[in-house]
Amino acid sequence: MSPCASHVKNPRQRRWTQLPLVVVLSACAAGQGESSSVESATRGDDKDRGVTVAKGEIVTELDKAIWHVFQAKNGDYWFGSHDRGVYRYSGDTLVNFTTKDGLCDDSLGLGGIQEDGSGNVYFNTAKGISRFDGRTFVTLRAAKGHSATGEWKLQPDDLWFQGAQDAGALYRYDGETLHHLEFPKTRDGDEHYRRTPRDEFPNAKYSPYDVYRIFKDRGGNVWFGTAALGVCRFDGTSFAWLPESELRNGSFGARSIVEDREGRFWFCSTQHGYEVDLTESTGPKFKRVGGSRGASNSIDGPIKGIMSSLVDDAGSLWMATYGSGVFRCDGSGVTRHAVKDDGRDITLFSIYEDNQGVLWLGTQGAGAYRFNGETFVKFRP
What we know:
Number of helices: 3
Mean pLDDT: 81
Structural class: mainly beta
């Protein structure tokens, strides 16, 4: 049984809105912004080849707005900030890297940090994607002149990245080429633009297709949480949409996607999960299942504002909320872990499990937090 699912005898069945992969919009977009000038050390023949070695600045503490935490295979921890670049902690030294060192932007925004099979670390910044090979930062450039067809692919080693705000785009990197991708247009997307035309809503500077969350399930399918259109599943040949109206999370956007041990998916909410049936030739079918038992708090009822979630090695579902702390659902009930800074509740952004199974939190303005087995405590290098 799902760690957060109550038994439902007759779950409601619904169908995805499915679009065949016939037309994919241009993959020929211009490359992401040029790297800023750098002021770093060069060494040996690197100088002759014009390669700048990122030196960074040794610091004693993290910035307050640490939105992302990541541990590389070599054990180094990386912390992505809102506007102060990234930090690397090797166990004894904390180094801050910024645009001065070749990072293409100092803000990681909604993007995150990931690693390829060769140990290169990638930073999905607000203005582009930077790759760090241990010595230098390189800005990836989107391919030009490629055919729009065939760029949407599903390959096991590809990395996926969010595009810029209001671009309605995303990127797939196959190790050699960065492909600029856009979703095939949908009726819900057209309806969104009809309801909120830009000339009448000039402050609505986002595309409904903007990607808030990218998640790869155990079957290798890639899921995208969008700003206003719900969740999209890509299986390599077709797109299936679960509209925002089904998610029951208001206009918060699909910021959280997770798959539990039973193969059920949870999107931004504990009110219900979904089982996906892929056996029918007409396309994916899903049924709504019961939500988490006791998933409520003393503040405002059902858990709201889920920013990020994961399933740990023990099968427990952890949910980091915007302002109500962290909730754990382990099959016997739900436990709330308050997260405080000087006695005050703080705003969370992400939750992450490192290589040792330790949980970390990225926050809006209180640094990074680590779970000690009982509570989340501020990380102090």
